[in-house]
Write a structure and sequence with these properties.
Blueprint lengths: L5 H35 L8 E5 L2 E5 L4 E2 L5 H17 L2 E3 L7 E6 L2 E6 L5 E3 L8 H21 L5
Antiparallel strand pairs: 1-2, 3-5, 4-7, 5-6
Helix pairs in contact: 2-3
Length: 156
């Protein structure tokens, strides 16, 4: 039964409007990430797209595993290259984390990719951290994780 109470009806209409706005915000975030994938990692553009599943907005993208802890030191040069390319295109991560880097095996070893592209920021000379700073941040996290793995704590 439909409510005739104006306050209840307003609340219901307000909730519908909020859900619709949230859905549009999610859709815009996904479109932004698709655009970043297409422009910054174009080798994957055929695998990245927005779609709707059960009425919900979703992002289809390639699957990458986290970089294994025992491989992190040796992939730092590859990550540095990815971050330099990102910087050249005018973007940066405010705080790069290992969860922003994915990998998968191919014929030459580990293939790296940048993830979580909706969290990228447009760079300006004064605001962007240097690639060196970002690599040092990842190295610091590696050291923290090594300490944490000895104590049973895991830090990201």
């Amino acid at each position: 039964l439909a409510s005739t109470d104006p306050e209840t009806q307003y609340s219901s209409d307000q909730r519908k409007a909020e859900r619709k706005k949230h859905s549009e915000d999610v859709k815009n975030t996904i479109f932004q990430e698709v655009e970043h994938w297409n422009n910054l990692q174009s080798e994957y553009k055929n695998y990245v797209q927005w779609l709707q599943l059960n009425g919900q907005n979703a992002l289809r993208m390639p699957v990458f595993a986290p970089v294994p802890q025992d491989s992190r030191q040796k992939v730092l040069p590859g990550i540095k290259k990815l971050l330099k390319n990102l910087q050249r295109e005018g973007y940066f991560y405010n705080e790069v984390r290992w969860q922003h880097i994915g990998c998968r095996r191919n014929g030459e070893g580990l293939q790296l990719a940048l993830l979580d592209l909706e969290s990228l920021r447009k760079s300006s000379e004064e605001s962007a951290p240097t690639v060196k700073d970002q690599i040092e941040s990842l190295e610091k996290r590696m050291r923290s994780e090594a300490v944490g793995s000895n104590t049973g704590l895991f830090l990201t």
